[in-house]
Design a protein that fits this description.
With 205 residues, the chain is of the alpha/beta class. The protein has 6 helices and 9 strands. Helix content is 28%, strand content 25%.
């Protein structure tokens, strides 16, 4: 059996992170969200998916595969021949990447099996989905990937998401809820609040 785990590593569960987690849960199971310390956020998340307060490295998994962009070896179907937990760090991407996964996640385990899924940076939900596809027998090289997605947030105003997305039925694997959020007044309000407070608000704020 393979359990997919997203270890939440941000200070808050922002709407952007939440839409990625929810999108992953809609396509991959079983999926568990760990590290949700805020009881309000955990309660909110638990109404839609499986979420716990404990960090993944404190749970009794005997075999852990960590997706780490800095890992030397690529993820492969053979990694799933034995039961394992596949762990993805719940971190919003930086461009260029800062390599936080090793410090915040991989280093927390005694004997992790660290694997990368390519040279590009994937969003959380896309990374989970790629791992899921590989767990079902496909090699990474067989998974079509699109780098960069343009989103028209307003007329003649396009924002590019410079990340890698697996291609499913000719389209980038990206949350429709996230796309709606990026083109709504809600993200404008969240960003204005972030300018005042220094951080994006939580989904429960």
């Amino acid at each position: 059996m393979v359990l997919f785990v997203i270890q939440h590593l941000e200070e808050k569960l922002t709407r952007w992170s939440w839409y990625e987690y929810l999108h992953a849960a809609e396509h991959v199971e079983p999926l568990l969200i760990t590290g949700l310390k805020n009881p309000e956020e955990r309660g909110y998340a638990s109404r839609h998916l499986s979420a716990v307060e404990h960090d993944v490295w404190d749970l009794p998994f005997s075999r852990v595969v960590v997706l780490d962009p800095a890992a030397e070896e690529e993820l492969k179907p053979e990694d799933f021949r034995e039961p394992c937990a596949v762990v993805v760090g719940g971190i919003l991407g930086d461009h260029p990447p800062r390599g936080r996964t090793r410090d915040l996640l991989t280093s927390k385990f005694t004997e992790p099996i660290a694997r990368n899924i390519g040279e590009e940076q994937f969003p959380v939900d896309a990374a989970v989905f790629v791992a899921y596809i590989v767990s079902r027998g496909k090699e990474l090289r067989e998974i079509p990937v699109r780098v960069g997605v343009e989103v028209e947030v307003q007329k003649n105003h396009i924002v590019e998401l410079p990340y890698a997305y697996p291609v499913v039925d000719g389209r980038a694997f990206i949350s429709e809820k996230l796309l709606r959020y990026l083109t709504s007044d809600e993200i404008v309000r969240d960003e204005e609040r972030a300018l005042r407070t220094g951080h994006m608000p939580s989904v429960v704020e």
